[in-house]
């Protein structure tokens, strides 16, 4: 897989969003995040949508450089079609056609599909850990712990590890809201995360492309390295995003959800900078955690609501 594949994968993501004849607000947000993270300018605008449609699935699939790129393209398309709910019949038809055009073996993506469905359906409620968060100090510690955990997941070689990151971040927002007496539903939590550009497809694209491209990915995706020697760019980005999400949510709920989207994004940026400075101090803990964490346990606990 080479850097040019990023543009092709983004075009396939656009086609996936268009499969049912319309691009939902959730899909549009995901595509914007995907394009931004992959460094593909204006890839989700109306100008570029006809370009993707004219090229067709077959041409785009054939232009991908290797098997890893083709598998990544399918997984990204699946994530886009799933972001606003289970794929509807037109989306299912598109995914089936894409799977065939990419020449993927029938069982090649079964595990990924099963885990994505399970993560999408994971409950936000029933969080035992939330009961332990009784004051600002314990809440701050909880945010830091979850930031380190999501950062550690980025160090795991398994490409499925990226599926666990967003559910953990959403649960963190839910916990913070609980701490301030907010009764939240899944859509409210996802909307807040979406304000900061955090979404299933965006994170999955970033994680999958980074794992496939290796060192080349840093030139495409950038990152908040923050001087944390030995940590991958993905770890730094995810640690900072989770940390900033938790603290921005804390400010938001503490002020009665009265902050504007612009104020929230400014807070998120500020806390990302704070996380960047903190990362070198906790890099050793993140690396140790990556050696201890078992991905099947993380998936199981997310599905059961234990995290």
Q: What are the SSEs and their pairings?
A:
Layout: H1 5-18, H2 25-38, H3 49-63, H4 67-82, H5 89-101, H6 110-120, H7 136-153, H8 165-179, H9 186-195, H10 200-213, H11 217-221, H12 233-254, H13 261-292, H14 295-304
Please give a structural write-up.
- The chain folds into two domains: about 100 residues, TerB-like, CATH 1.10.3680.10; about 180 residues, no CATH class.
- Helix content is about 70%, strand content about 0%.
- By secondary structure, it is mainly α.
- The longest helix has about 30 residues.
Q: Top keywords for this entry?
A:
globular; 307 residues; 14 helices; 2 domains; single chain
Gyration radius, rounded: 19 Å
Distance between the termini: 35 Å
Q: Report the strand count.
A: 0
- Provide a count of the helices: 14
Structural class: mainly alpha
Low-confidence stretches: 42-52, 126-131, 216-230
Order of helices and strands: HHHHHHHHHHHHHH
Helix residue percentage: 55-70%
Task: State the domain count.
Answer: 2
* Portion in beta strands: under 5%
Shape: globular
| Mean pLDDT over the full residue set | 77
Largest sheet, in brief, is: none
Oligomeric assembly: single chain
């Amino acid at each position: 897989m080479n850097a040019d594949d990023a543009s092709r994968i983004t075009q396939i993501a656009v086609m996936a969003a268009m499969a049912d004849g319309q691009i939902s607000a959730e899909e549009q947000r995901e595509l914007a995040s995907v394009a931004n993270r992959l460094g593909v300018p204006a890839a989700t605008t109306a100008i570029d949508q006809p370009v993707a449609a004219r090229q067709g699935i077959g041409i785009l699939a054939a232009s991908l450089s290797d098997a890893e790129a083709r598998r990544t393209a399918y997984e990204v398309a699946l994530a886009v079609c799933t972001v606003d709910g289970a794929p509807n019949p037109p989306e299912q038809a598109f995914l089936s056609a894409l799977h065939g055009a990419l020449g993927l073996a029938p069982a090649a993506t079964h595990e990924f599909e099963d885990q994505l469905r399970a993560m999408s359906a994971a409950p936000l409620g029933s969080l035992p850990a939330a009961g332990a968060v009784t004051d600002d100090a314990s809440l701050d510690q909880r945010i830091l712990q979850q930031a380190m955990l999501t950062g550690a997941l980025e160090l795991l070689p398994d490409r499925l590890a990226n599926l666990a990151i967003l559910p953990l971040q959403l649960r963190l927002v839910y916990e913070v809201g609980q701490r301030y007496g907010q009764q939240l539903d899944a859509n409210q939590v996802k909307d807040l995360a979406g304000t900061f550009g955090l979404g299933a497809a965006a994170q999955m694209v970033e994680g999958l492309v980074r794992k496939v491209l290796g060192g080349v990915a840093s030139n495409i995706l950038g990152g908040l390295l923050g001087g944390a020697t030995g940590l991958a760019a993905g770890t730094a980005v995810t640690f900072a995003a989770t940390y900033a999400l938790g603290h921005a949510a804390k400010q938001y709920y503490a002020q009665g959800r009265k902050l504007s989207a612009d104020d929230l994004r400014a807070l998120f940026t500020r806390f990302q900078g704070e996380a960047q400075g903190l990362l070198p101090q906790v890099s050793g803990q993140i690396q140790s955690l990556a050696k201890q964490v078992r991905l099947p346990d993380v998936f199981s606990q997310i599905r059961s609501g234990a995290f």
